[in-house]
C-alpha cells in the first residue's frame, strides 16, 4: 500500500514537471518528489497548474520545510534549484556592484593614508604610534579586498546558494572563515590608532590614564575576537568541510560572535568620543572654538552609524537559509566601516595639510577668537607660518587688589610663552586651554589667600 501511495505522489508531481520540463524530473531527488507530490495533492492547486503552484507562497514554504526535514543538505539544494528553474525565479547577482565599491573605496582610503604619511615625512613632525597603527590597518585591508574580489564574488557572493556548484560553496565558506578575522584585526587597529592620537594631544594625567586603560582594553578585545574567529570550530577546516551537515562538528555560533563584537565596538566608539568631548568642554575657549574642535571628533560617529547598519545585517543573517546571498550585506557594510574608519582617523592630518595650503584662511579664523583675561593678556596669533606663538603674559605693573580685606594687597605676575608649530596645532590648542585653566585656578587661589 505504501508503495502504491508513493507512486501516486510521484505521478502527481510528474504531471507538474512534465508540463514544464520532463527532463528535469529524473534529476529531482526522490525525497523532494514525495514531499512536493503530497503537498500539491493536499493544496487547492491542480497537479498540472504550474502558475498556481509557483505563486502559492504558503505551499512553497511548506514544500521547502518538508524537503529540509526529509532530504540531505545537498539534496535540498538540488531540489530548490530545480524547482526555482521550473518556476522561472529570477537569479540575483549584484556581485559586480560589491566589487566596484570594494576596490574604489579601498583605493580612496589608501590614497588618503598615503597623503598622511607623505605629509609626515616632509614635515617637521615625526611619525607616531598612531601612524604606525594606521599603516598596519591599511596593510590588513589588502587581503580583505583580495578575498572579496578573487574568491567570494566568483564563488557565489549575492547568489542563491542552491544555484552554486558544491565545490564553490566550500571555497566560499573558506573565504568567509578568514574574512571576519581580518575585519576584527583591522577595526581594532583603527581604534588603537585613534587612541594613540588622543594620547598625543591630551596631556592631562587623568585623561591619559583613561586613554591608556582604553588602549589596553581595545588590544585585549581585538585579540579575543581574533582568537574567537579563528577557533570557532574544533578544527578550522570544519567550517568549510562540514557545511553539508554530513558530519556533525562543534562550532561556535557565528552570528553570536559578530553580535558581541559589533555591540562592544559601538560602545567603545561612544566611550572614545566622550573622553575628548569632556576635555574640550572644559577648555577655556569660546563656544565657537569648542564647537569647531568638537565637530572634528564627531566625524568619527559616522563609523558608529556604519557599525549599527552592519549589526542590522547580522540580525538578518541569523535567520537566513541562503548565506551566500545574505552575507552580501555584511561584506558591504564591513568594507565601508573599515575604510571609513581609516579615513576618519586621517582627518586631523588632512586638516594640517589644508592649514599649510591655505594659511591666510585659517589665520583670519583664529585671530577672530583672541581673548583678554583679568589676570593678564591672552594673545592667539596664527600667521600661517611655522613657529607661530601663543602667549599668556601678565603686566608687571598691574596689581590685583582684594576687595574682601582692606589694606591688603596681592600682586601676581604671569609670564608664560608657548611655541606652537602648525604641524601640532591640535595638541597646542589643548595645551593653551590647560594653561589658561591652570592660571585661572592659581589666580582664584591667590586671591583667597590674600583675603586672609
UniProtKB/TrEMBL annotation:
Record-annotated CFEM domain positions: 2-114
Assigned GO CC terms: extracellular region; side of membrane
Coiled coil: none
Compositionally biased intervals (Basic and acidic residues): 371-398
Record's signal peptide: 1-19
Membrane topology: Lipid-anchor; GPI-anchor; Multi-pass membrane protein
PROSITE patterns according to UniProt: CFEM (PS52012)
Family: Belongs to the RBT5 family.
Protein name (Swiss-Prot/TrEMBL): CFEM domain-containing protein
Upper classification of the organism: Eukaryota, Fungi, Dikarya, Ascomycota, Pezizomycotina
